[in-house]
Amino acid sequence: MRPELRQAVTKLFKYLLITYAILSVIYTASYLVATYSGTSHDFGGLLPKARDAHAESDQQESLSTHSNEQQHQQQEQQQQLGDHSVAWSNAHGAVQVLPENLIMSKVFSEAMGPSNMTPYFFRAKETFDKEDITMSTLVTRNRFLVLSRLASNYKGPISATVHVMDDETKDEVITELQELHSSNPDMQKYVDLHLIVDQYDRQFNMWRNVAKLFARTDYIMMLDVDFHLCTDLRKSIRGNPEIMDRLREGRTALVVPAFEFDNLDDGNDWRTFPTKKDELMDLVQEDKIGMFHKGWFKGHGSTNYTKWYETDDLYKVTRYDFSYEPYIIYKKEGSPWCEERFVGYGANKAACLYEIFLSGIEYWVLPNDFLIHQTHRYPEDARRKERQYNRKLYINYREEVCLRYARKFHASGEWHTSRADNLKGECEKIRGFKKTMMSTIN
């Protein structure tokens, strides 16, 4: 073979070899991305149950028409195929895949279970800014229409936990939910809806944790769905650099004052609600509206409504009460979760906010934004019975969480910093706390 021809063949072989190597790298990278999309190579990642239109339709049809046995078989098949799993990996790329149901049972281990949980049963079509504020809420069948209204009013990210009882009404309720979702474009655009089907009613704190866990922005508002957002919260907050800096630091929770009409019939139609503070103040001066649940002053009294009426400046909550349960906006990462042992009415939200406060997060009140309660009937018999149980649980829980955070601050060297100020001021009200704390941390 002539030297020129040999040289050309050699070059061609080299080019083919290089091309093969490049294509191999591209193929391998594509395979890894497709296989482990959504995972982190530092600490593992959750692969949520996202759906395209066909998969979503199939899932919903299955829930509404298949028998329990068929659903169980289908879930087992999905798990065997590696679907609905959590992939954990290390820096070297070693991957361990665990069933999502197993991980969820650990995440919500203090709640009653097992629960059939489907994160992102409906996933919002909108792409959200990470620094937006997600309305984190929980919904039952009698509040479906109120959730739809919230989506159209807020027109921003919403993470909603929807609970459906696992009984003979299940298929009917899920069908009703599907119809509501398909009828409102705002729900399709803005609402991430996480479905829980089980037999355990009123696990409010567990449901709150689900909504918080799957919220897709850095900040959330813990909101009861039956409250109407009367003002543009996002404009007030995101347009104020000082407030945004506070949220980014993670040491501030913003309180949005809550109101209720004295004549409950006036709270039936949200379209008549005031949208500006001066309009609200006219109603306050006419004694037509006031603090939410004013008969239970401890619930919202720490907001200091007298001061709110007179100021246009952000101000700090200085007279905290352990029964305080405001509606707050705060940073998702680094904040405590709600205690799931509280089941039913009474103390569940107060306990959640108590731990947030003890963790070193200060409450600051927004001066010009407000919420108004939309009137509805309360199941008073259930509330009275459940409050008795939760009142006893809360007494023990307060002592427990005080000691836990005292030990935490002592061990981390934060006991003599401002981080521990909330705990010191609140927990020293508990008889014997100082003595017990000193014997525990020394």
Fraction of residues in β-strands? 15-25%
Poorly predicted runs? 31-67, 73-82
Which word captures the global form? globular
Distance between the termini: 88 Å
Strand order in the largest sheet: 4-7-6-5-8-14-10-15-13
**Helix percent band:** 40-55%
Rg calc? 26 Å
Given the helix and strand composition, which structural class is it? Answer: alpha/beta
Q: Which whole number gives the mean pLDDT? A: 86
The number of helical runs is 17
For the sheet with most strands, the description reads: 9 strands, mixed
Number of strands: 16
GO cellular component, one term: membrane
Keywords: Glycoprotein, Membrane, Signal-anchor, Transmembrane, Transmembrane helix
Main location: membrane
Membrane topology: Single-pass type II membrane protein
Plain-language structure description:
The chain is an alpha/beta fold and 442 residues long. Helices cover 46% and strands 17% of the residues. The chain has 17 helices and 16 strands. The protein has helices at residues 3-36, 53-65, 68-80, 100-107, 144-154, 170-183, 185-190, 204-213, 233-238, 241-249, 277-285, 297-300, 305-310, 348-358, 380-411, 421-427, 433-441, and strands at residues 45-46, 85-89, 95-99, 116-122, 133-139, 158-165, 191-198, 219-222, 227-229, 252-256, 258-261, 289-291, 315-316, 327-331, 362-365, 371-373. It has a nine-stranded mixed sheet. Helix 2 runs antiparallel to helix 6 (170-183) and helix 15 crosses helix 17 (433-441). The longest helix is centred in the N-terminal third of the chain and has 34 residues, at 3-36. The model is unreliable at 31-67 and 73-82 (pLDDT under 50). This is Glycosyltransferase family 49 protein. The chain crosses the membrane at residues 12-33. GO terms for molecular function: glucuronosyltransferase activity; xylosyltransferase activity. Residues 70-80 have a biased composition (Low complexity). It is a single-pass type II membrane protein.
